[in-house]
Amino acid sequence: MSSLFALLAVLGTASAAVVPSTGVNTLLVTSTAPSLDLVECLKTSYYGTYGGSASSQEHIYLPSEECLISGSALDGLTAGSLIPLNFEREAGRIVWIGQAGIDPSLAQESLQNTWDGISTKSAESIMLESDAQKVLTTSTKSSGSIQLLYQSPNSLVLHVPHAYLPTIDTLLPSHLVPVALPSNPLPALFEGWESVPARFAIHLANVTKHLRFDPQIDKIVSDGIELNQIRRDVRYLTGEAPSGIESRHSFTPGAIKAAHWIKEKVEATGANCTLRQFLDGFSPNVICHYPSSLNSTEHVILSAHYDSRGSFGSTRAPGGDDDGSGTGHLLGVAHAIGSQGVRFEKQVVLAFFAGEEQGLLGSHAYAEHLHKKNTTILLQVQADMLAYHAPGEPLQIGLPESIHLPEASYLIGNLSQIYSPELVVGKTAACCSDHQSFISYGFPATQVFERNGWIADPFYHNSGDLSQREGYDFEQVVSIAKVTLSSLLTIAGYSLGESV
Ligand SMILES: *[C@@H]1O[C@H](CO)[C@@H](O)[C@H](O)[C@H]1NC(C)=O
Ligand SMILES: *[C@@H]1O[C@H](CO)[C@@H](O)[C@H](O)[C@H]1NC(C)=O
Ligand SMILES: *[C@@H]1O[C@H](CO)[C@@H](O)[C@H](O)[C@H]1NC(C)=O
Ligand SMILES: *[C@@H]1O[C@H](CO)[C@@H](O)[C@H](O)[C@H]1NC(C)=O
Ligand SMILES: *[C@@H]1O[C@H](CO)[C@@H](O)[C@H](O)[C@H]1NC(C)=O
Ligand SMILES: [Zn+2]
């Protein structure tokens, strides 16, 4: 509290010189979550909660100077930092950079070294894949450089000019991941400021309470999910099978090719897919929709990200595990829906996102769109990295430690015990995948991950992330796909018709 006041005093003296005309001019990073107790001008300047470990979560607000000076603004806060902003926000995006969830006991470079690396690399504009280069040179004109706004033991907050957004991932060491702040404050729509409205949690808890083995669901998931098909599809996406795809980085021709191929594959199972552009130059989201047999307006969404990240300086980014495994698993689910003749009672969406590696950009745009349309979502599940477990470990499924709706995770854990009892259910601090975008807009969301505990994949964010290597286990992908498909069948309801 006292340090906040001290910082506020500093702000008071510094602000006269730096206040831009945009109105929003202070970054506030605090451990205090949004609640009804905060003053109105803080509640309406909330930009999200960041960090995969519950003990080190950071809540970010961008209050105006008037808000902070208005006396009681900081009364409800326990600790935090205030940083005056001295740039035009429209020139770029604010990006939070944090721990991906690799075992911290493994030697990792300090955040100070990371920042030194980012500023050096970005100043030199060491860039990457040819198409990204084009975007950079056409939009660099008045872009300025990446600025460090805030640093804590676990995170950095940067201002990233638009020209650098497409390649921010390539400036980071593999154990750090970016999450872009939204362009506008998150909606202050939740009664009591629960992150997700209570009725969704109550619905999922009730479903979980009444859950029992359904032989028809068991038959659909067992007959429908096919290992050989998932393996074939993952290897097409990685380029291990002849596809011509070298990389699925969001700015490569490989990503565009993958998007069109995914659309075609999923449409063959009875869905309608749309390529949705979300930011200039990024490959599109592929949004596939199965209609409701009962004209329901309620949705259930299962997703993965098809874009990938490679080693620094390499143009190869096969993304076999991250997130070829989640993408292949979604294709496996689509195949099962088609081959088993599943008709859903509610609307079901299979979403393949891009721009995940640059800060959850594709999923954020889609979640914002669904929020603007007042869409009702009963459950959203992101599948990011499903294939790897350390050699000798059992098959497992990891559910998030933070940034999820616990009732959604309980349901998935219980479904796993029923339909894939071979999986050991546990928790992970693996951080920052696309379900976070849905949580930000108050939707009931969670994630499935390959491992309980830390990320252990030695080829994480590495150009060697292929499917043909020790520890990459298609059996585990199949088992997790049975769980996510059972969640669609359970929450969306279904009947069986002709297969397609
Ligand atoms: C809870 O689920 C049961 C069984 O599906 C259903 O009959 C009941 O109406 C549900 N209750 C609520 C409050 O949703
Ligand atoms: C897909 O969209 C087209 C055109 O909007 C429509 O005619 C068709 O019925 C849709 N198919 C499905 C499976 O929703
Ligand atoms: C769904 O809506 C269409 C058109 O409004 C109608 O023809 C159809 O009977 C409805 N189906 C059900 C199951 O209500
Ligand atoms: C949004 O949908 C809910 C129910 O689904 C409805 O009660 C509410 O009025 C809708 N709000 C708007 C702004 O359309
Ligand atoms: C099953 O659900 C209950 C809550 O209904 C939860 O306490 C329990 O942890 C869940 N089991 C698993 C394995 O997730
Ligand atoms: Zn990923």
TrEMBL record:
Single GO molecular function: aminopeptidase activity
All residue ranges annotated as the Peptidase M28 domain in the record: 285-468
Record-listed E.C. numbers: 3.4.-.-
Main enzyme class: hydrolase
Keywords assigned: Aminopeptidase, Hydrolase, Metal-binding, Protease, Signal, Zinc
One GO BP: proteolysis
Cofactor: Zn(2+)
Range of residues in the leader sequence: 1-16
Family: Belongs to the peptidase M28 family. M28B subfamily.
PANTHER family membership: METALLOPEPTIDASE M28 FAMILY MEMBER, PEPTIDASE M28 DOMAIN-CONTAINING PROTEIN
Protein name: Peptide hydrolase
UniProt organism field: Kwoniella pini CBS 10737
